[in-house]
Amino acid sequence: EDEQIVAEIMERRFFPDHIAYKTWEGFHFAGHEIRITEATDCYGAVVWPSALVLCYFLETNSKQCNLVDKNVIEIGAGTGLVSIVASLLGAFVTATDLPELLGNLQYNILQNTKQKCKHQPCVKELSWGIDLEKNFPRSSCHFDYIMAADVVYHHPFLDELLLTFDHLCKNDTVILWAMKFRLENENRFVDRFQTLFDLEMISNFPSLNIALYKAMRKGRMKA
């Protein structure tokens, strides 16, 4: 079953027939052909398999996870594929990443969402753990969903990443997080994450070493 679903996910990707002056990959999600411009010299400007897993989940679970008119933020948006798919599914999306990645992110989002989405997504700088209250004040920023794909890997900002999740997440916010396990650091981050959030694995793909999680804040008021 794992290999069958993984094969279906990977079939959503296609490549240009001819060499182009810009490096790009194509994807089929939410009834659209999506073309993503990449930069192979930067981790944040490449589409990683975790993004495909999350996009596939959003599309195939659009009834249970209805994004229409929902307020969504993607952290570490990279090339913007997840944000684009969420926008095509009807969400109002804020795609965020480091300042040096915003140009390519903005380009991809405009090229793939203009006049195609109910709500035009916006692109905003977010350096994890920095100026969170200034740029995303708790009093006025409310997100129904926080989305993240492959934001945990061998980098020195795991503390700041956890702080960012904590700042953006309200009691009724749902976190959808696709993660590829590489090193022991990833397991330790999951343990720390679970001190703040109730974590549920909703999909697991051993052949990709990727898990998809749903999380909500601990101690929230329950109906």
- Whole-number tally of structural domains: 1
Give Rg in angstroms: 17 Å
Class by alpha and beta content: alpha/beta
Q: What do the pLDDT scores average to?
A: 91
Helix percent reads: 25-40%
N-to-C terminal Cα separation, in Å?
35 Å
Which fold name is given in CATH as the topology?
Rossmann fold
* Biggest β-sheet description: 7 strands, mixed
Overall outline: globular
* CATH homologous superfamily designation: Vaccinia Virus protein VP39
What is the beta-strand fraction?
25-35%
Order of SSEs, N→C?
A: HEEEHEHEHEHEHEHEE
Strand sequence of the main sheet, in spatial order?
6-5-4-7-8-10-9
Summarize the structure in words.
This protein has 223 residues and is α/β, with parallel strands linked by helices. It has helices spanning 2-10, 49-60, 81-88, 102-113, 132-135, 158-168, 184-193, and strands at 13-14, 24-29, 32-37, 71-74, 92-97, 122-125, 145-149, 174-180, 197-205, 210-217. It is globular.
